[in-house]
Design the sequence.
């Protein structure tokens, strides 16, 4: 996993001791979780049960997404108000970010993309940080995504002042567009779902298609 994500910068300017202290605990958590759950590529239709620590998981996902935003100079401003949450200093700040899990399954590479007409299976073996698109009644929107092999964690940023009703309306709309996904909640420590979210090739193309342009200096 480290090799796949090694091009992401660390959050050096948040706290001098972060990567040896507070943030290293997030890395330790995710490394154990990776070995236990994420390392194994799941097949389509497979039932998956994932145990999780909601805040540790979401804080690490936000940390990686923030690093990615800084590297691409794109949506950094979204993360600035969330830094106390990432640091574990204020858990309530993170409520404006909704967290979902969708599963990515192996797929056959389209015929026009194969060499000599030979079919090739594309498996979700690469860990990626970026975006995915989803359909809404008014067009396409994007959310942040961290892919750990078959597990695609999706982060949706809502206004910090959003009321509970509007947040729930967003969750309903989002899950309608990705019916195999599940919302992860702080009140729960386990989720069950089937590996039937999106095929690997489509996931890769979505990640290449939906990007934010670098912010002009």
Sequence:
């Amino acid at each position: 996993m480290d090799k796949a994500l090694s091009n992401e910068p660390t959050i050096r300017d948040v706290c001098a001791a972060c990567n040896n202290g507070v943030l290293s605990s997030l890395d330790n958590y995710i490394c154990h979780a990776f070995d236990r759950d994420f390392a194994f590529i799941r097949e389509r239709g497979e039932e998956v049960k994932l145990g999780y620590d909601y805040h540790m998981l979401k804080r690490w996902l936000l940390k990686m997404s923030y690093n990615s935003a800084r590297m691409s100079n794109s949506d950094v401003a979204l993360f600035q108000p969330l830094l106390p949450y990432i640091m574990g200093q204020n858990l309530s700040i993170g409520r404006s970010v909704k967290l979902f899990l969708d599963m990515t399954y192996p797929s056959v590479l389209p015929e026009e993309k194969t060499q000599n007409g030979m079919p090739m299976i594309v498996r979700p073996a690469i860990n990626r940080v970026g975006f995915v698109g989803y359909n809404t009644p008014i067009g396409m929107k994007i959310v942040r995504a961290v892919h750990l092999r078959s597990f695609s964690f999706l982060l949706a940023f809502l206004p910090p002042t959003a009321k509970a009703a509007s947040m729930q309306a967003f969750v309903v709309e989002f899950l309608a567009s990705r019916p195999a996904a599940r919302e992860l909640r702080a009140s729960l420590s386990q989720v069950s779902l089937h590996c039937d979210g999106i095929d690997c090739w489509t996931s890769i193309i979505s990640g290449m298609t939906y990007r934010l342009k670098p912010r002009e200096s």
In short: The mean pLDDT is 86. Residues 54-72 form the longest helix (19 residues). The chain has one domain: 18-209.
